[in-house]
Fold this protein.
Amino acid sequence: MRLILLGLPGAGKGTQAHVLADQLGLLHISTGDMFREAAANRTELGLRAQEFMSRGELVPDEVTIGMLLERIAQPDAEKGIMLDGFPRTIPQAEALDAALGERDSQIDAVLYIEVPEDQLMSRLTGRWTCAGCGAIYHEQTNPAPEVLDCCTDAKLTQRADDQPDTVKARLDTNREWTEQLADYYEAASKLHHIDGTGDPSDITARLLAAIETVPTTAAEA
Ligand code: ADP
């Protein structure tokens, strides 16, 4: 199965992708995580991406598309993928369709997690992540335990681009393309609207219910 999680920053893509990929046995691919890792390792790609990320802008397509297509061509992607943060532009969506089409494959469904914008700002600015395993916590809604025991390397960090000014820029950047991509996948009859408000486990249940209705190319799912 090949799924895309679509939604504005803070909609819960990362949180849900972790849980769903695990439950469904899919490879979770987050282009944001890939860029952050490359930046932390100070690779050429990472340093280039960081310039854009720190301004809340999109990394240019020519960098992003190549990186993603290379990743989904790895053997561990054969079990199925859960894309989180890609595609973010129409050329990215078209490049993805073309690359999968060459392998007689396709995206099975796009899950559009929708959350009113006034909630997104507080979600993002209160967000903390474990540097060891990527677990996501929130100051109000999902506080990290006093003794962090999610993994052996547990340590809480806040993303550099979760500062209020950059959050606003990210929402401005992403609003338009998210709608464009929703239209693109609606036209392909692949779009599912998911209410992204409320308890994370309820949102997971809504996502799973939508995924159950998806006709897969069964033999290769
Ligand atoms: P969020 O959805 O919360 O903004 P991500 O972790 O998905 O966070 O992405 C962080 C940053 O990485 C983005 O603001 C952008 O600069 C860059 N990025 C991630 N994925 C893409 C993509 N598909 N195209 C362009 N830039 C991307």
User: Anything to note?
Assistant: Residues 9, 31-32, 35, 52-53, 56-59, 64, 85-86, 88, 92, 161, 170 surround adenosine-5'-diphosphate (CB under 6 Å). The two ends are 5 Å apart (CA to CA).
